[in-house]
Amino acid sequence: MNELSYVDGIRLIRHPGEQTHTDLTLTFGVGARDETLRTVGVAHLLEHLVMGQARRTPIEIQAMVDLTTTNFAASGSPDRVAAFAEAICAGLTAPPVDRLSVEVGVLAAEDGWSAAPLVASMLNTRYGARGPGLAWLEGAGFDRLTASHVIDFARTWFTKANALLQITGPMPSGLKFDLPDGPAPVRSIAPGRLLDGPSAVPGDIPGAAVMLRLPVGDGARVPSRVAEVLRDRIEEECRHIGGHSYEVDADSVSAGDGFIEWVVYAEAREGSSRAVAACVAAAVRDLAANGPTEAEMARVMERLDEDLSGPDAVLGPVYAAAMREILGEPAAVPLDPELARAVSAREIAAVLTEALPTVVCCGYDEGFEELVAAGFQPALPCPVLSAVPSGEVFKPIMAARVFARELRNTKLVLTEDGLVMSDEDGIHEVRWDDVVGVMRTADATVVFGGSGCSIPLVDGLFKGGARVLEELRRRVSDDLWYAESALGSDSAH
User: Fold this and answer.
1) Cα separations in angstroms, 360 against 64, 257, 310
2) Which residues contact 375 (CB under 8 A, 6 or more apart)?
3) Tens digits of per-residue pLDDT, 151-197?
4) What's the Cα-to-Cα distance from 231 to each of 10, 197, 251, rounded to whole Å?
5) Spatial contact of 223 and 234, defined as CB atoms under 8 Å apart
6) Is 5-168 in CATH node 3.30.830.10?
7) What is the pTM of this model?
8) Fold held by 199-378
9) Is residue 192 within 8 Å of residue 213, measured between CB atoms?
10) Is 392-483 CATH 2.30.29?
């Protein structure tokens, strides 16, 4: 079977299998990128609440939230799998928010991520505090999410039109999904910030990563081969030859404009950040200039043959097409095995060369220096202005300038369009129409912009600073203000 059918209004893919038990996966087209800075973590919190309601089902169950999807899965007897699905849908339709405080504690202990930390960091550089970039941020914290946040999120995203069901084994009888009907939710992907590259930004995690903005591609899937070969090369050099890394991997997310953001990363053991960054830089440069080796191309083709003859050869494309439809993405050109097998090293090099101007690498500590030495243009993770705009200027009080050298050239500017902070890191702006959150801490107010910039307003630091806070209150909606999480004081993981 290679076509979709429906069960109770939900898309269904039936996988072949002679097993006597049933495997069920219910996937919703919503993930961490569909939150806001104010509601970061709400998808994960909802998943915990719902799974808690189904926890006593005596079969194997699990759930996961990533950047773009939320998945619920069960394996067991058909009747109990059906009971699990019904319990999940009941929880999504009427979230058990009376358990909020309990699950918040569990989530604080879990410290989970919707994407690998290096991937999340790279996406934050591209997208700031919106869309995929939210994976790097904690936002208000789980303890500042309200019952209304959870209920509104569930009603918006967990609908029949936004779901895909996969079943292997016996089909449970009378399977019902008590979810809202209606059209699929409308989503938009914020445009990413393109640097004049190839660029390098300083990283916060030991290791290095490279972010590639690659086209979806035609039937030959050349862009996917680029990411595949680059990952293989970095793994070979960083792990198997250099012994610097354990985890080397790649992840991707749709850019929504016919492109895919690929992030290839390698974590670094202590003291190896420079070596890992050097491996990443060399891999990018050499593959763009010379393409893959014969051995690397042979491995690509062997993997392609395995994929084409594997269990997902038929239903994999069906699943991918269904998810693109659910996510509102254009249909992809079907894979053409003959074209894919005919891809050359030169074609792979050409695609990477064309992508080089948008390439961004990150390096930790000395790794950043290594990337710059390798010819990658240094940049900051968030955008900066070239000059301070005109406006009402506020300077730190004299005592602060006397005792803190770095504050002597710092100034805060209140403009008609927003707030500007000029300091030793550059000139950062948060426009009024770009404010995505305002966090109040014990001694400061931090203003977050969707661009990725943030401006901390420390109490009593700026002479006349109360005037800025008054304007901030006037300009920014109350629902974007929140108190600092009691679970931790950082705004990022």
Assistant:
1) 29, 19, 34
2) 198, 281, 285
3) 999 999 999 999 999 999 999 998 999 999 988 888 888 788 999 88
4) 36, 20, 10
5) no
6) yes
7) 0.93
8) Cytochrome Bc1 Complex; Chain A, domain 1 (3.30.830)
9) yes
10) yes
